[in-house]
């Protein structure tokens, strides 16, 4: 998910010495986009909350950068060293939390520490392959579209969000985490801000759709669809087909859940910015994500049913 567009400092018009002019769409950009200074004028997006009612999760935006970011001159695929570090940090913590979740948290230790620890170690690479792209490519989608619209955009991890997510997964086996967000600084219209926000969920939608035929092809090559209920280790042997099956399940599930969650029109989530730009577009994408979930909850069918059906055609 991407952050709210940072405020831009008003520039004096070269032909007017004693007055200030500005584009009515513009906000104020401080010298440090992540400084916690108060706005000097109201923000362009009237539907967004004021600083006094700012969502608590947004506090980490200020903590993640205490110095002025260097605006690079690279292309849209340029990643700074600090951005790479934050992506690695967030991905690593996210993967570890997924490993804890797969092992059932502390409750999974009932059969002993060694089996629990082995489950965590085996699950982590599976989760990295299956869930990692859903998170990383979602953020890169925001970054690329923001830079295409002339903004500075880099990912920053949320240490407190990552720590909370890992602790929750370790103790309860539940994953709820705010890994971080793409920080965006620059002047954008409401339409451009909507495009930046919708880019992440659209990436998840694309990965979800790709996962169905890709999963079917993987099942055809590995026959892994017959190992849905097996443990990774059985009678001392590693059952790699069960790992493959879970990778397909988590790929499809992670992109569906991440997409629909980010389309909720609340707080710093992408859905609020998309709905603020175009309610029709928001409803369309939200229903696209919601439909497979409703089918799964109300019928015996799910996206995995389609994957297995396609695999059985060959």
Provide an overview of this structure:
- This protein has 314 residues and is mostly helical.
- The protein has one domain.
- It is built from ten helices and four strands, in the order ααααβαβαββαααα.
- The longest helix is centred in the middle third of the chain and has 33 residues.
- It is globular.
- The protein starts with 59 loop residues before the first helix and ends with a helix.
Spell out the key features of this protein:
two-stranded antiparallel sheet, 10 helices, 4 strands, 54% helix
Topology readout:
Elements: H1 60-63, H2 81-102, H3 113-130, H4 132-148, E1 152-157, H5 159-172, E2 180-185, H6 190-222, E3 233-234, E4 237-238, H7 240-262, H8 270-277, H9 279-298, H10 303-312
Antiparallel strand pairs: 1-2, 3-4
Helix pairs in contact: 2-3, 2-5, 3-7, 4-6, 6-7, 6-8, 6-10, 7-9, 8-9
């Amino acid at each position: 998910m991407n952050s709210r567009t940072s405020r831009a400092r008003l520039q004096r018009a070269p032909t007017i010495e004693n007055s200030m002019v500005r584009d009515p769409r513009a906000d104020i950009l401080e010298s440090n986009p992540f400084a916690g200074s108060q706005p000097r004028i109201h923000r362009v997006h009237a539907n967004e909350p004021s600083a006094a009612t700012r969502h608590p999760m947004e506090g980490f935006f200020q903590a993640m950068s205490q110095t002025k970011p260097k605006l690079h001159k690279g292309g849209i695929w340029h990643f700074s060293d600090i951005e790479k570090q934050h992506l690695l940090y967030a991905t690593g913590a996210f993967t570890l939390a997924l490993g804890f979740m797969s092992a059932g948290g502390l409750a999974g230790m009932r059969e002993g520490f060694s089996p629990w620890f082995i489950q965590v170690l085996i699950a982590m690479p599976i989760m990295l392959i299956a869930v990692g792209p859903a998170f990383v490519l979602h953020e890169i989608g925001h970054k690329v579209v923001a830079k295409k619209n002339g903004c500075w955009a880099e990912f920053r991890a949320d240490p407190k969000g990552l720590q909370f997510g890992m602790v929750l997964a370790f103790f309860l086996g539940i994953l709820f985490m705010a890994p971080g967000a793409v920080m965006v600084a620059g002047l954008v219209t409401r339409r451009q801000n909507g495009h930046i926000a919708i880019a992440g969920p659209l990436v998840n939608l694309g990965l979800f759709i790709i996962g169905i035929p890709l999963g079917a092809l993987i099942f055809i090559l590995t026959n892994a669809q017959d190992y849905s209920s097996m443990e990774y280790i059985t009678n001392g042997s590693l059952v790699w087909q069960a790992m493959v099956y879970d990778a397909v399940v988590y790929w499809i599930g992670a992109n569906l859940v991440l997409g629909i969650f980010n389309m909720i029109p609340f707080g710093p989530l992408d859905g609020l910015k998309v709905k603020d730009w175009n309610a029709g577009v928001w409803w369309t994408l939200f229903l696209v994500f919601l439909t497979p979930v409703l089918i799964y909850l109300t019928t015996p069918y799910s996206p995995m049913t389609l994957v297995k059906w396609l695999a059985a055609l060959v």
